[in-house]
Structure formats: C-alpha cells, structure tokens
Amino acid sequence: MGKDTTDQELIVSRQILSIPQRFSTGPVMGRFLRELRDNKRIMANKCPQCGRHQLPPREVCAVCRVEATEWEELGPEGVIHEFDVVYYASPDPLTGETRKTPYVACWAHLDGTQGHAPLWHLLDAPDPQKVRRGLRVRVVYADERKGAMTDIKHFEIIEDAAGGDG
Amino acid sequence: MKTKNRNVAVIGCGMSKFSSHREEVNQPEMIHEAVVEALEDARLALDDVDCVLHGNMELFEMVHQPDMWHVLGSGAWGKSGIRLTTGGTTGSTLACAADNVVASGLHDVVLAIGFEKLQEGHTTGGITNMADPLWGRGLQTGALTGTTAQQVIEEFGEERAKLAAIKLRTIMDENAMRNAKAHRRLQLDRNHLKDYADTDLRLVGELRMLHMCSQSDGACAVIFASEDKVDAFDANPAWVVDHETVHREETLMFTPEQTTHRAAAERLFARNGVTDPVRDLDVFEVYDPSAWWGLDWMREFLLLEGDEHLRMVENDEIGPDGKIAINPSGGVMASNPIGATALVRVAEAAMQVRGTAGDHQVPGPVRLALASGFGGTLWTVLMLLSKNKPQLGAASHG
Amino acid sequence: MANRVAICAVAQTKFETNRWDARMQGMVWEVVDAVRQQTHLAFGEDGIQAAVTVSDDVFDARTISDSAMTDVVGAHFQSEEKVAADGAQGVYYATSVILSGHHDVVLLAGHCKESQPASRNMVTHLAFDPFYTRPVGLDYLATAAMQAQAYMARSGVTEEQLADLVVRARQWASKNPVAQDNKPLSRQEALASPMLADPIREAFMYPVSDGAVAMILASEQRAAEITDRPIWVTGLGNCHDSFFLGERDLAGNFALQRAAERAYAMAGIDNPKQAFDVVEIADQYAHQLPQYAEGLGLCEAGGGGQWLSDGGPDNDNVNRSGGMLAGNPLMLGGMARMAEAVIQLRGEAGDRQVADAKRAVAQGATGPAGQLQTVVVLES
C-alpha cells in the first residue's frame, strides 16, 4: 500500500469546497461594529472588577471571568506598541487578493486603554523603515462602512507628534 | 490534593515519513504507516489496543469528522476512541489525553494518532481561518510575525541576535540531517551564518524563510500503556510523569505581557522537583515554529535570565551532547505536519528516553525529557517523561 | 475505578432554529454562568480547574474553534481541551480526566450553530472521503435514509409508527423548557410532511438547531461540597463501526451494542430491560429511536417494531426530554440527553418527571448513521 507507486499514474482529485456562512455578531461584537459603522468610534468594554479594557470587546473579562459590562470609547489616537513590516503576503482567503508588499501592520494602544489591549490594523506607512515603537498614530475610517473591521481603513502616523527614534 | 490513579508509559512510537507531498498515499494510508510502525515498535498487534485517540486540524484538509473515514487506517473499528483537537497543540493534547485515559483505568492500551496532510488544502488559509471572522481574519497573515525578532534584537543588539537565531536554525538542521524521517534537511553550513542571516528571503521584519517551520504531510502514532501492561508486554517504557496545559485569552497577541510557556514550565517543574531545568532535563523536544521563537522561548521554558539562552546557543550547549539536548530530531523547522507535530515531540522525547532514536539518539543516559506543544492564541502544553517509574502520591501532585 | 465522578450541575440554552441574537461565545457563557451560579464555584485551583469544550471547526467555520471559547470557559492561564465529536464524548473524556487524578473539578461546555452554514448538509457532506463517497453526494441525511430503509425492512417498523413517535416527542417536548420544537403535531401532519430522502420525511428528522450545554463534573471528594444532589457516572462505553456503508450492517447496532456492553459491565448491569428508570436516546431521525433501543438492549435485535407496538417508549420512560427529534444541533444531541438524564435523576424535571428515578442510560452518536456510539450510565 503506497509502497511501489513509481510506475503508476497518481490520480489527483481537485475540489474547491466552500460553504456560505452567516456569522452572528451578538450584542457585544455587534455593538462594536455598529459604532464603527455609524459613529466612527472605537468602543471597548471594561471589566467592572479589574478595570482592564478588552479590544475586541468580549462577553467576559478573560482574567476575572465576570461579564465586562461597561463600555468606553478609546482613541481615536494612540501609540504604536509593536509593528510588522510584511515583505511576503499570503492571498486573502476570502478575496483571493494579495496585498502589495512591503506593507506595515501595527498594534497600537489607543489613548485611554487600561491594561494590555492594543488594536491591530494596517498602518499607512509610505516609508516602512521610518516606523518606530512609540510613534503616535490615528485611526482612519473608510468612507463606506458596513459594520466590519474593514470600516477602519488603517492607522496613519501623526507627523507632528513623531518621536524620532522612539 | 490530586494523586495520579496509576502509572502510564509510552511503549511504542511510529511516524510516517514527513514530506511536502505525500501524493502516493491518501489520509488513512498515511496514518496506517505510522500505526504499523508504532505497533511494531511496541511489539503489539492491533488487538492489544483498546482505544484510539485521533486529532488534526480539519480545516486544512476540509474533511468533517475525519476520524470516521480514518477508521480504515487507524484500526479504530470495534474499538473505543475519542477525537481531540486543539490546533497546533493537538498532538500534545492527544498525548495528555492518552495519559489521562490510561491513568483513569478506563483503558489499558491507548493508541494516539495525530496527522496532517497539508498539501491537500491551503495551509495559510487554514491558519487564517483561526482568526475571529469578525475581527482579525481580514488582517491575519497566517502565523507570521517579526515582532519577536524585533524584541530580541532590541534586547541584545542586531548582529548578535540575528546570528544566534540563525545558528539555532543551523543546529536544528544538523540534527535533522541525522533524522531519516525529517522533511527538510538543508545541509546548512556554519560558515555561512552571516549570509543566511542577512540575505535569506525576508517574510516579515527580520523573520526570514530559513527561520520558518515547514509545512509537511505526516502522521505520528504513539502507544500508551498502563503499568500492568508494561509488565505483561515486557515493554520498553518511557514513563509519563506529568503534564500541564496553559491557554490564553481569545485575542491573538504575538507579544503578550506574560507567556503561557513560562507559566506552564513553572507549574510543571514545581510539581515535579525540577529546580534547575538545564541540569535536570537531558532532552527537550520543543515545538519551535520559527528560529526566533525557538530562541526566545528557550529562556521562557528553561527559566533562564538575561542572555543565558543566547550564550547556550553561542557556546554550542544545546546539541546532542550538550548540557541539554534541544530537538535532537531537528524540531519543527525540519518537519511540521501540524496535527502531528506536537505528538512527534512527545514521541521523539520518549524515543530518547527509551534509547530507540537510532541515528539521532543522544549519547549518554536520558533520564528526564520534556516535550512541548504550541498553538492557538499562544498556548502551551508540556509533558514530562522519565526513564524511572514515578512514585505515585509521593510529593508531586497537588 | 479508584474514584467516582459526579455530574454536579447542568445547564442548556433553549434550543432554537436560529440564535441570530448571540454569537458562540455569548451562547456558551449563558450556560457556563448558569452552572457556575448553581455550584458557586470560582475558576482556579480551588474551584473549576480545567475545561473540556465540545465543538466542530467545520460547523463553526473556524480553525481551532475552541480558541473562541477560552474567555467564557475561564481558561485564561488554565487548561482547556477540545473534544471534536458529540458532547457525549465530552462527558466520556471529562470523566476520564477526573478518574486519572489530574484534575478534581472540570467544566464541560459544548456549542454548535447549525444555522450558521447555508446548510448543515453541506457540512456533513464533507465527512465523506473525497474519492468514493463524497462524489456520489452523500451527507448524514442520505446515509440516515439508507439506514432507515435497511432498518425498517428488517424490523417491520412502519411509517405510521414513526409518525406516532414524532407526535409523542412533541408532547413531551412541550413540557421541557429548553426544547425547541414543542408545538403539537398530528399523525396526519407528520405523514404529510415533505419527503427529504426516502423514507425520511421532514417531520421525522431533527430540526436545524442552535444551542449550548454546560456541565460541571467533580471527583467524589469534591462533589459533596459542590452539590447536595451529585449524579454519579457509573458506566461508560464507546465504540466505532466501519466507515464504508457497504461494510456495515446498517440495520444493526454493531457499535452501539459494544458501547452499551462496556458501559453496562462497568455499572454492573446485566439486564438492561429492567435496569433503567430513565432512557435518553439521541434520535436524530425517528427510526433511530427503536433501532438504538435494540442496540441498548431494551428489546431484542430486530424487535424494535414489536417494542413500539407494546408501548416500549412509554413503558421504559424514553426521551421525556422530547429527544433529539425535538431539536438539538448535531454536536450536542448526546450531551443534551445526558443533561436530561441528570435533571431527571435530580428530581428537577417538573411535568415530565419520572417518579423515583434512580438510574438512567443516555446515548449519543457521532459520524454517518451513528458510526461512533457513546453510552453513559448515571445514578443518583
């Protein structure tokens, strides 16, 4: 079985499998996405016990295991905590498109965030080599928004607050 | 106070060859290779097995409940079984589950099977589908990030950090060259470390192609047995001492404040009297998805401080005859059939303890070996194996 | 066994055709929070030490579907392990975790939303191998239809008898606050419902369903602190049949019989016809009720039709929950059966309570036409 197949034609079966999905967002994620779409603002929820924010907002504070019922707006500006300069892009599994490289993605702590909850998104960085931790950034929204993470187009660097080498 | 109900040992290991395109076998056939080898290694027949555990990451192959189809190759027909899947940690969860199931008394001989046939699907698509469909899925680029490299470089300086990472990669490859089952055996040359570090294809930041793990097809089968059966079969055992699973919250953050790696290691070592991991452990089969993570996590897992981990790499202390042999198999950068990978770490650690690792057997007695699994939102699973039969109820658990 | 394991609390969402109002995490939190409140347990070494989750990546359309669960099962910096099969297998595994001595108190939480994919048949179609069985268009409905044909031919069970089972299921479901399909249905309506895959009519098939179930299991030492009504897991068994349908005796119960035998041996049961006060069978399709009753030893092999005529389901207190026919998603059918059994044994089943219930058997199935069967015996 599978041992001497050198003379055989190995038949391969090619299939594309897809199942259309309808994902529910629920009241917590749903509210976050609505606020992006309708009000262009980023809402995190906050744990009543430890006070940390969660982005994305989730039903429960992972640390305290209690419902995180308070909501607060964060940002719209923040500080880069980490970033990635991507040289090799994989095709988007949903659209099949591949981003032009190099591009930059970053994790930014939005102003007002309690605890470790950076927002992860693309960064508009004409010169990736100039990106540093500690740079101030601001959220830029898409003109057409539909209640999805892509309602945020990207972060942009706030030039006048650039901290040099960070 | 928790006491293990009864002792459990690994008594047989089997692996299919790991490669990028096992086109001459289908999934159950590939699994069957590993199962047959494990049975031969344990000198058992399928009839001796009570229960079959099975796992993989099914969105890679797009087969729903693949354990049903795989009954054809796993030997589970007429037998008990459970399917467990936890992403990259699947293989280690299978090992922990096998230990739990045998220790429980429900079954005496458990065959754990992990596999993946990545070439039958789209790997990065599979990983990207781990992201919350509402949050990160549009952004995620699989498991690639340069943030760890950035942190290591900031802490130790660019040249030193890059050299240490690529040297670690090269040591792993040297080990893989001695492992006939390994997928990628590149014959990397220590004379070209700087070249590799500076010119190899860049993926993200300082994460380069050479640093990255494989995408492999493969299956691994490991047989766990109760103490009674070890005696009855006159088996060659690697005793399961203990295991620890530590998960993290849902949001994927590549550089969290606290790592599950260190937490798992601290808990496991405290329970089992490991006070100096580098000294106490003879072998560590670590799930190293990239050379940068392998380097950074050495410090986390072995509870090191400062630049101790870099110095161990620089001073060649992690080779087969080093202070602690890390991935004598070549590790995950050499072979990565994801659903099997973490189980392969357990198998390789067990083989070292049992003395059955052949060409990549480390010299000297292997008394205590550690195996790690990685996956999900940076979770860790650790399993500790030993040559000596554990004393139940003595000091350890609780 | 050196130790005993008890189920100390159970909770189920009300099963619905479409829980559009909640995402998976929210649904699971409802039941996790419920069992936590029932037991007053915190998460941590002194309370809930580990989680076992139940879900399916293809149904969730999410690789590592348990990574979405960490927060709501309290697994941040704790252990979580996913069983990817019917939640009955989760009960099996969680029990073994405690019997092994590795943990004393385990949270078991399962979820599934059949409403999320365009069709659950598209999901189960993927359970078939890409070369032989998938190209002919098999899914779990089609295989169940073949099973039904084979079974009805051998046992003599009629379409009218199946319709009566559906009517009965709705009657009991109306007394179960979590049951989905609890509106009465007449025999004529059942027989007139559209034919999906001969002989399975829509009414004879479990409806599309969304929901979550959670349980807390504990070792004997801890159970007494946690609840005053621990329900003991006294027998467990599971077994696989083969994959290709032609290699199986579709009218028989190869896997279920062996799973039941193992569970009964452990529980010290030699006469299943007399042993149980409560029986819960995961009847995804109406014909599976008498078929699996045979496999469980409630009647002779091939005797399902006679058992129905003799009033077997009522005599043996089968599926007072309404059964899976009343509505549970694919991953939770067996687990919901076990939850009902616990509720009955705790005397908390209200209008559908079996008087003096002391011992129950509950069954769950995974795979095409019940290829993998799980049986659990529970006692108060």
Provide a short characterization of the protein structure.
Chain A has 166 residues and is mainly beta.
Outline the structure in words.
Chain A contains one helix and eight strands, in the order αββββββββ. The termini of chain A are far apart. Chain A has 166 residues and is mainly β. A five-stranded mixed barrel of chain A has the order 4-5-6-8-7. Chain A has a three-stranded antiparallel sheet with strand order 2-1-3, with helices on one face. Chain B has 398 residues and is of the alpha/beta class. In chain B, 37% of the residues lie in helices and 18% in strands. Chain B has helices at residues 27-42, 58-61, 66-69, 71-74, 90-104, 123-128, 147-156, 158-176, 193-199, 227-233, 260-271, 277-280, 291-301, 308-314, 331-334, 338-354, and strands at residues 8-15, 51-55, 80-83, 109-117, 202-204, 207-208, 217-226, 238-246, 283-285, 325-326, 368-375, 379-386. The radius of gyration of chain B is 20 Å and the shape is globular. Chain C has a domain at 5-118 and 208-226: Thiolase/Chalcone synthase (Peroxisomal Thiolase, Chain A, domain 1). Chain C has 14 helices and eleven strands. Chain C has helices spanning 24-39, 57-60, 87-99, 120-125, 140-155, 159-173, 187-192, 220-226, 254-267, 272-275, 288-295, 304-309, 312-315, 333-345; strands at 5-12, 50-54, 79-83, 105-113, 195-197, 200-201, 210-219, 231-240, 278-280, 359-366, 372-379. In chain C, strand 5 (195-197) and strand 6 (200-201) form a beta hairpin. In chain C, helix 3 crosses helix 14. Chain C is globular, with a radius of gyration of 19 Å. At the B-C interface, helix 2, helix 3, strand 3, helix 5 and strand 8 of B face strand 3, helix 3, helix 4, strand 8 and helix 9 of C.
State the main characteristics.
heterotrimer, A: mainly beta, 8 strands, B: alpha/beta, Peroxisomal Thiolase, Chain A, domain 1, 12 strands, 18% strand
